[in-house]
Each structure stands twice: as C-alpha cells, then as structure tokens.
Specification:
Blueprint lengths: L10 E3 L6 E3 L4 E5 L5 E4 L7 E5 L3 H9 L2 H6 L5 H12 L1
Antiparallel strand pairs: 1-2, 3-4, 3-5
Length: 90
C-alpha cells in the first residue's frame, strides 16, 4: 500500500503587505457575481476575492494604496470596512 499524499495547503497573498501565507490565516473580502462586496468568513462565497492578514498595518496599507478596491475591481463600502476593523479588534 502507498501512503496518502499530504494535502496541499493553498497559499494566498495579502493585498496589504503582499506576504504569502496559508489561506486559513487570512480574512477574505469578496465581490460576488451580483456585484456586492462582502466579508467572507467561510472562505467559500463565490466571486472575486481579496485576502488580508490579521494586522492593522496591512489593512491600513490596503486602504491607503487602494489595493483592496483594485483587487476586487469594485469600490469597498464603508460597512465592509467596519466589519474588517471589527474582525481585527476581535
């Protein structure tokens, strides 16, 4: 019998600091096919995603350089920004 191959860990890049990490360490913000921008806590919502490290400095860079909106190809509503800040505080 052969050993089962180890499961490949998906790697993603933070839009703030541009550092690569396993997907499970990020918060995902997604633009759905309907055009809504939402925080995706499950990581499974269909659409175009952007990943953020759990760091205020990464979030600040992503907002300052408009990387979050550019990656999603859509403006990010203030409500989504507040949800991301709450996630960082929690």
């Amino acid at each position: 019998m052969t050993e089962r191959a180890a499961r490949k860990v998906p790697i993603r890049t933070c839009v703030g600091c541009e550092q690569e990490r396993p997907r499970s360490e990020f918060l995902r913000v997604v633009r759905t096919p309907e055009g809504q921008v939402v925080v995706d806590r499950s990581g499974r919502t269909p659409g175009r995603g952007a990943y953020l490290c759990p760091s205020r400095s990464c979030f600040a860079q992503a907002v300052k350089k408009k990387r979050l909106a550019r990656t999603l190809r859509a403006p990010v509503p203030d409500e989504v920004m507040r949800q991301v800040e709450e996630w960082l505080d929690g």
